[in-house]
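Page 42, continued from yesterday. The earlier attempt failed because a stray header line got pasted into the input along with the sequence. Redoing it now with the clean sequence only.
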Amino acid sequence: MTSSDAPAFRDIFFSSEDELRLHARDYPPTAAQESRDRLPVICLPGLSRNARDFHQLALLLAHHPEKSRRVIAVDYRGRGLSQYDPNPVNYNVMVECRDIIALCDLLGLKHCLFIGTSRGGLILHILAALRPDLIAGTVLNDIGPAIESEGLIEIRDYLGRRSTFSSFEQAADALAALHGKPFPALAAADWLDMAHALYISRDDTLVSDYDPALNDQLQAIDFSKPLPTLWPQFEVLAEKPMLIIRGAHSTLLSAQTLQAMAQDRAKVATRMASGQGHAPLLHHKDVFPSLSAFISEF
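This time it went through. Structure tokens are written below.
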């Protein structure tokens, strides 16, 4: 097998503290010898998303012509190839954070760069409180210590639909019809990639690749009350270099919160993803250069 024939990633299966079988993708750098001193990147997806969300980004980083590095993309419990939790109460950021720590311990990772999209960024706030030593720097993708009710309601309602499709092309068309307005920057190929990341085939039907019980906790939120915030945890997280990416049309991370996150913090940089909502595609041509430049500093 030549290097060009080698698989893009290997599957890692590991056990959580409560003995669930969890999964992650491990993308090796193309120049392993030269990249051994570069910090690995661990990618944490959104609430109902999975490791496939980061496939194109992982390839760009692992195959970088000058600074290739190892990339690990995670399936949380109840998503992707990870086992569903028989107790849906465990679908929370504290438990999922401990799962990430278990993965780092298994792989012997002591110091990493982290990319957290939406839910993944919330997990990083908890990780900063539990194990700040693991964090060298972070990329927060359209998430912060305070989130907007409007955006969370949209996510709740979307997850409650549980649509099924007969083909990935049909799924892509449906995604574009539903989310196209806040994402004018995306092309047809982007929606098709998203469909492949979101859905899997079961009994000749495409279904969402997550445990439906994930939506239970969102349904239980009382949106008449203010949502809790994570500002104390953010203060710890912001002690390390950070890049915050906000979708220009995001309804989850407000412009005001973004400004407050960056204000008077020398280690925090921001980037607006034009033509995108929640959450931006990080491998998109208008976003990746800024992300790559940030990561290349490590």
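Notes: Residues 93-107 form the longest helix (15 residues).
Reminder to self: strip header lines before submitting.
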